[in-house]
Amino acid sequence: MQRILKERDRLLRRSAQAYGLAGSVALFLCLIVPGGVGSTARQGSIALVCLMAGSQYRLGRTGTLRSACLTIVFGLGIILFVGLDSHPDVALNLVEEAAIGVAAAVPMACVAMVLVVSRSRLMLLLALFLPTMATVALMTLSAHGTFLPLALGFSGWLSCFVAGSWIARSIPRVMNRIAEIGQAHRAERHASELEAQRRTDARLLHDTVLATLTLLAHSGVGVSPLALRQQSGDDARLLRQLRLGGLPSPRRSGVYTLQPSTESTLGTTLESVRQRFGRMGLEVDWHGSGQVRLPNEVLDSFLLALGECLENVRRHSGVLRADVTITDDATTVRAMVTDAGVGFDLARVSTERLGVAESVIARLRAVGGNARLFSSPGSGTTVVLEVPK
Question: Domain for residue 319, yes or no?
């Protein structure tokens, strides 16, 4: 809140400075009109205009009450110089009335902008406004002038008071609204991070514990006891480390590590996927590129998605053989996983199943990739995985 008030005061000071200096220039132009003001009054008034411009500059820099009071004092001196210069029996001419009106309405009224921020300053504003209007009325009425200077002065003070009050009340509202937007943005970002973490946890659970429990529920059909024991041990170690506060980093489908992965090539890491599914009884024929380098994060997601596709082949296709073809171009690495199994109807896949939606498609999209699935009952299944280099 303190920063908001400082910004408000700075804007009020700069507005008063610009308005007051513009008024001083306009007053100077009135004073130098030939034949408008007597030479003595002109010289004294011009000197006071220069002093008043200096106090207005200080008012914009510091906002001190001393600068505001000096601005009014110099302005009153100008009004007195111009008003007393005319003969008592001769009415003020148009230039003199304009000079008095401009002096009261612009360079003197600018102090109202910086005196609207507190009750004590409003009292000072009233104390400066009343002598100003009284002096203008005295000079014009005693010299048989019109009400033009008085009207100009009153309207100038009123305009500055309204503008200053509007700025003083608008800035805190705007800054508070910006703060509310910032809080909403942080809440939205936090919610997005929580959702991303939830989805990551769901993928982790699906790829490890749920996969192992599914094998156990089916009595480990198609998997040797040694492979099942090894996979269960990996899951147990992972869960133990997570309970102690570790953060998982995937190495391959179904296997995670809590240590940062080092940079490696696709050709060397595919070997771990091949060995895993070979132990589990799925024969995979590998074709295509042998060595493709990918960033660690992209490589992890690519291998995890590939492993999930092969896991689906092993569990759901009804066949024990699959083909994996790896290709790449200047920007993209692709893997096509094909089986000649029973296939399925894509339209009848439940949205609650995480295997393809989360562990394959969402995982690849998180690193800028994509996955496409082609299948029909009795015609096997083909999955195309794509990730950027």
Answer: yes
